[in-house]
């Protein structure tokens, strides 16, 4: 077994929010008919929860499923489990039209935490990150400045953000700049959570 190295070796930054690259993170991309009973049952067996509603994420324990498009899910689990889980899932879906791929080495995951979370995201994305536009559990696949990315809120002050590994340094630097306390906007501080 080799050492797992993330794009930034677990880099972190503390500013208006904490930005931390998560290490040991596995990711499985699944494409197929999300309404198919075989696919739904296989995903539930792997994750311990139902497929999330469109534009949402669902999680139980350390496993998270993010709705990425009408025919795509991203399953987040430990790196050590990802390859085996992808093989098992592929086996369970052998009789239907579906694509399962271990994307663990192709993407990076950041955990963002702090009360200025919404203001930090608002500096980087055109998505509505207000409490009404991005409630807890909702996922957004969008742009982060000049690159694609996706994020979802785990709670009012915690979000997970996924990007391609090839742009991880760029995204980390963007997040550090946006989280610089000197550039604090404070726009969302008065908004109540729904």
Automatic annotation (TrEMBL):
Entry protein name: Sarcosine oxidase subunit gamma
Source organism, top-level taxon: Bacteria
Signal sequence extent: none
InterPro entries found in the cross-reference section: SoxG, TrmE/GcvT-like
Organism: Palleronia salina
């Amino acid at each position: 077994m080799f050492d797992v190295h993330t794009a930034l070796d677990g880099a972190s930054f503390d500013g208006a929010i904490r930005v931390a690259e998560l290490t040991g993170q596995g990711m499985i991309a699944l494409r197929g008919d999300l309404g198919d009973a075989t696919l739904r049952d296989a995903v539930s067996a792997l994750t311990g929860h139902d497929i999330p509603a469109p534009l949402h994420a669902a999680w139980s324990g350390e496993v998270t499923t993010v709705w990425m498009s009408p025919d795509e899910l991203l399953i987040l689990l430990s790196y050590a489990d990802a390859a085996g889980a992808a093989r098992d899932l592929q086996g369970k879906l052998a009789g239907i039209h579906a694509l399962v791929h271990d994307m663990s080495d192709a993407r990076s995951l950041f955990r963002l935490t702090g009360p200025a979370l919404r203001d930090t995201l608002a500096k980087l994305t055109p998505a509505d990150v207000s409490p009404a536009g991005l409630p807890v559990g909702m996922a957004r696949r969008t742009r982060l400045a000049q690159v694609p990315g996706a994020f979802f809120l785990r709670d009012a002050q915690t979000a997970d953000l996924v990007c391609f590994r090839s742009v991880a340094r760029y995204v980390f630097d963007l997040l550090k700049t946006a989280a610089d306390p000197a550039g604090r906007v404070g726009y969302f501080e008065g908004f109540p959570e729904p």
